[in-house]
Give the backbone structure.
Amino acid sequence: MAGIYIHIPYCRQACHYCDFHFSTSLHTKSGLVHALAGEARLQKNYFSGALNKATSLETIYFGGGTPSLLSGDELKMLMDTLADTFPVSPSAEITLEANPDDLDKDKLQVLRQAGINRLSIGIQSFHDRDLHYMNRLHTAAQAEASVKRAQDADIPNISIDLIYGTPTLTATLWKQNLDKAFALQVPHLSCYALTVEEKTALSHMIRTGKTVAPDEQHMEEQFNTLVDLTCRNGFSHYEISNFAKDGFHSRHNSNYWNGEPYLGLGPAAHSFIGNRRQWNVRNNPVYIKSIEEGRIPCETEELTLNQRFNEYVMISLRTQKGLDVGKVKSDFGTDYVSHLAKEMAASVAKGLLEQNENQVVITKKGKLFADRIASDLFVTD
């Protein structure tokens, strides 16, 4: 089930915690949108052998940045280009990430007309003090109103992002955030712990004493609240940071976690097919100029067997279904199964991992340390 990711590297304002590739200057936006269409045409054979009439594209995802900054004409042009270049399933999941302040009635109508059938709304919090700390443009009132307007516009497949662990978010306020999401009947939640990335405004603010670093115990308590309350409200915890009602799992992100091929278009976008990974340059003018010259400005890498194993361990352990020992044996060989059994013993003894026949999953306790647990199982070259 292949998919396409389209990176829109523009934002009106930089969030303090964000280290994604984006620009707050929009003067190159029109040229970049045309370059995205150009890259799609240059990559028309990317899925050769993987797609045919029976296996068309099942997901398209506009990420960023802030894709809701695109105009209706820009979205239509990109969607028309994809439909002309690739076999797109009539039932494809087409997601667009949006900021609440962009989602007025007219914009929602534009999105529906462009074929968007799923929204991922970057709410982050329903409390103004928290939003100010993160340097978000929208208000708590706009956040709630954007969800209601999207529902009124007949876009029922809605995901919202929430962030926990900020110094401004108490246990009570975090529970109120979740209760608000449940009351709004949002069927999908993506919830992330506040992470301090290098070279971000938040990192600088912590180093200079303008704010404090996230408190690990604070985050652990809020994560446990998240897991408990989503379970009580009928959500499945199908990936470390993702929770969904039945029928509303993100098909696009599930592609990533299942190792399906995907093509990334735009600066800093990543692609994966077979044993090959590819990533584009993180520079908007360089990207535009290269595409105009008929060149895709990317680097590629052929994954070794060890790299493929490590990637499978990392991704699978983040998911509800976990790691399949039978798949490890068939895809990598018995030596990797032996390695896995040896290296996971300590985590099983600590109650961080559990094994049921061929399935290995991270426990609730272990989910707080998922990346570290996975890295302990890696094979080194």
Remarks:
- The chain has 14 helices and 15 strands.
